[in-house]
Specification:
The chain is mostly helical. The chain is built from three helices and two strands; from the N terminus they run E-E-H-H-H. It is globular. It starts with a strand and ends in an 8-residue tail after the last helix.
Length: 81
């Protein structure tokens, strides 16, 4: 994700689904960051920790899980599949 001054954000991914998930994750993370900052100092997660979490099979598992979550919120989503 990239924050563009006075224009918002641009998000990309290796598929439309993953770019959509990254957009939702950015919004949710920004909200959580703001809430946490109201309580006190927020501890940053290192780049290494993020890389360890979102690599290989774990990355695909994360995107698959999150896509399923948001798809179930869609009123047109077929819950029988």
């Amino acid at each position: 994700a990239l924050v563009l001054k006075n224009h918002g954000v641009a998000v990309c991914g290796d598929s439309i689904e993953n770019a959509t998930i990254a957009t939702f994750a950015l919004e949710e993370t920004a909200q959580l960051q703001w809430i946490a900052a109201q309580v006190g100092t927020v501890q940053k997660i290192s780049t290494g920790e993020v890389r360890n979490l979102l690599t290989g099979a774990r990355k695909e598992e994360f995107y698959s899980h999150v896509w399923g979550h948001y798809a179930r919120l869609d009123p047109w989503f077929d819950k029988g599949t």
